[in-house]
# Entry
Amino acid sequence: MPAISKQTPWQIQRSVVFAVFIRELKARFGRYSLGFVWALLEPLVYILTFSYIRGRFTGAHMAGISPLLFFASGVLTFLLFRNIVTTSLGAVESNQGLFNYQRVKPADIVVARGLLETLVILFTAVLLFYGLYVVGYGFNWNSSLEVIGLLVCLLMLAGGLGLIGCVIGPLWPDSKVIVPMLLRPLFFISGIFFPANAIPEKFRELALWNPVLHALELMREGLFADYTSHEGSWPYLLACSALSLLSGLAVYRLFRVTVLTSGYIR
# Structure
């Protein structure tokens, strides 16, 4: 019998995440004949609805860019953040059988789901922006480096919360209702419908405590050469993203065994 080569921890982690990723991909899209089309429909409905409402009142550009482009950049960025956080809540229960294999850990499910959500949103963004370009809504690209940096920060921010979510999901079942409920107000106050400088002065300072608002502002600045954000702060977003990731790792480290052996937080 040929000897089985010893794998490094990185090789083990990569293999597990890839296997879970393929499993999640089949579970999400393999059951439907239209597959990926359903993932495209949600942001498309939001964008078209908001653009129609905006057009009924005024057809003016928003901070120098078309309303369709403005809403598309905001909706896709927010959905990436929201989906990573919410899908992490059920990561343990929906994959309970996998934890019979010693190499599979709850964090692997969070990473695989986060990777899947990222690829879905990126593919959706390419299709939407290309479609808008074809019908006449072109734009001047600003900075690829800024967009990549923003995606890294957003994944750190959502990933840290996702690690916390994968722990509290099985230990506190009510969190599956409470967390999505808490995220709903963010949909309306994170700058999807408006630039940050349009917020009234007396509310702006409070609104800018929301790191997702900074993420949307900086994403638009990175995408569109005609958009300048005076409110988005890289230092603040980086600090929130690092704090989120470190907090998520700490919580996961403390409860990684309990989450697989206990039922509820009493």
In short: The chain has one domain: 9-261. Residues 106-134 form the longest helix (29 residues).
